[in-house]
Write a structure and sequence with these properties.
This protein has about 300 residues and is α/β, with parallel strands linked by helices. The protein is built from 10 helices and 13 strands. Helix 1 links the parallel strand 1 and strand 2.
């Protein structure tokens, strides 16, 4: 793709959307059109609001759909429905607005998640793994993927689906952000050997891969290829923050805490389910992406040692 083509970015006021917008403007000299519910964006629009109207500009070459609801555990039926409303219904609303244009975008990039696989542990899981995700977040993303696949085929739009693992970067939300804040405040505990590996990706690499993979299309896992252990992440974060390494909790004691958490319910910071996720290796294979385009992702551990 050549520079100066228009790119439309949803969720542009969010963590990932801001990085994508800055990358295309600063590094590729693209003219970007940004959409968000608030903040410094070109178009204020709540994609989940079916009654809201929006005038999209003609001539959009590529869409990056980064808007979405994540990083929360729903406690009520209303909160569960919000995942469907934003991630699935919101995607349908967005496409309905594109259908009003004289010319549809050539390329559509959807920011999805490895949560669609519905696994808590496993090694080098590929894109062919069944979509067994059963959380509201995973279900909403699966529905959006399925809808976009049909929409793109019927409208001759090249669709790329990027399934993201833990995303690292300055002020990153989610589990990695929680780890960083916990270590910063001295409230993080390292459990057992902390040797479980997790797939991660540096946020800038998500932005960089879009311009390369959008014309190709397809569904891809994306990782930094290193899959660091919890111990590696804990150590590099503590060193960068000039904090002591987190206090270690023996695995048997953590298991007791988990059982107590099961009894206490939602009030507890840990339970056996959360403990299993923390202590289990979960990695994803991104060889398919490397076969499609030539790129070298940054090491998250190395980047964390330089900046947080």
């Amino acid at each position: 793709m050549s520079a100066n083509n228009d790119i439309l970015i949803t969720g542009a006021s969010g963590f990932l959307g801001k990085v994508i917008n800055n990358y295309f403007r600063s590094n590729l000299n693209y003219q970007t059109v940004t959409i968000g519910r608030n903040g410094s964006v070109d178009i204020i629009y709540d994609i989940a609001d079916t009654n809201a109207t929006i005038d999209l500009p003609e001539g959009i070459n590529i869409v990056v759909h980064a808007a979405g609801k994540a990083h929360s555990v729903p406690k009520t039926e209303k909160e569960i429905q919000e995942f469907i409303d934003v991630n699935f219904i919101g995607t349908k609303n967005l496409c309905a607005n594109f259908n009003k244009l004289i010319t549809l975008p050539k390329y559509f990039v959807f920011i999805s998640t490895v949560a669609v696989y519905g696994v808590d542990k496993g090694e080098m899981i590929t894109e062919s793994h069944p979509l067994n995700g059963n959380t509201p977040y995973a279900i909403s993303k699966i529905k959006a993927e399925e809808y976009l696949t049909a929409w793109a085929i019927s409208n001759n739009v090249t669709l790329t689906i990027l399934r993201l693992p833990l995303v690292a970067g300055h002020d990153a939300p989610g589990n990695l952000g929680a780890m960083i804040n916990g270590i910063k405040k001295g409230r993080y505990l390292s459990i057992g050997k902390a040797d479980a590996r997790k797939s991660v990706i540096w946020v800038d690499d998500v932005a960089k891969i879009i311009s390369l993979i959008a014309p190709v299309g397809g569904t891809y896992n994306i990782t930094d290829g290193r899959h660091p252990t919890f111990k590696e992440l804990e150590t590099v974060i503590a060193n960068r923050l000039q904090k002591k390494n987190p206090l270690k909790v023996p695995a048997f004691l953590a298991a007791i805490f988990g059982l107590v958490g099961d009894v206490l319910g939602k009030r507890a910071p840990i339970n056996t389910n959360k403990l299993r996720k923390i202590t289990s290796t979960l990695t994803f294979d991104d060889q398919k992406l490397h076969n499609a385009v030539d790129w070298t992702p940054l090491s998250v551990v190395e980047k964390l040692s330089q900046t947080l």
